[in-house]
C-alpha cells in the first residue's frame, strides 16, 4: 500500500507532423512545451486513496477495498492491484 504522497509530473508535447508515421519507420517532428501536467496520489488513513490533478482541478477519492476487486489482468500481472 502506498504509504506517502506520490507527486509526479510530465512535460507537454506537440507532434507537428508524422505522429502515426513513426510506426512505419518514417520521421516525425515533435516539440516539448513549457507546460507540465502534475499528478498527486495520496493515501488516507480511512482506507481510501485520493487522486489530484491540480492543473485541471480534478480531485477523486476511492475506497481501496473496492479498487482491489478490479480486474487488472490486462496489465499482465496479478488480478489484485494493491498489496
Automatic annotation (TrEMBL):
Q: Which residues form the signal peptide?
A: none
Stored InterPro entries: Mev_gal_kin (IPR006205), Ribosomal_Su5_D2-typ_SF (IPR020568), Ribsml_uS5_D2-typ_fold_subgr (IPR014721)
Query: Has UniProt tagged this entry with the keyword tRNA-binding?
Result: no
A GO cellular-component term linked to this record: cytosol
- Cite a single GO MF annotation: mevalonate kinase activity
Q: What does the UniProt keyword field contain?
A: Kinase, Transferase
Q: Name one GO biological process term.
A: isopentenyl diphosphate biosynthetic process, mevalonate pathway
What superkingdom does the record give?
A: Eukaryota
Record field: transmembrane: none
Q: What is this protein called?
A: Mevalonate kinase
Q: What is the lineage of its organism?
A: Eukaryota, Metazoa, Chordata, Craniata, Vertebrata
Amino acid at each position: 500500500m502506498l504509504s506517502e504522497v506520490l507527486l509526479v509530473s510530465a512535460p507537454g508535447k506537440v507532434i507537428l507532423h508524422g505522429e502515426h508515421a513513426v510506426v512505419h519507420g518514417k520521421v516525425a517532428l515533435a516539440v516539448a512545451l513549457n507546460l507540465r501536467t502534475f499528478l498527486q496520489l495520496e493515501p488516507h488513513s480511512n482506507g481510501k486513496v485520493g487522486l489530484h490533478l491540480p492543473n485541471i482541478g480534478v480531485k477523486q477519492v476511492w475506497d481501496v477495498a473496492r479498487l482491489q476487486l478490479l480486474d487488472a489482468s490486462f496489465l499482465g500481472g496479478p488480478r489484485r492491484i494493491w498489496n
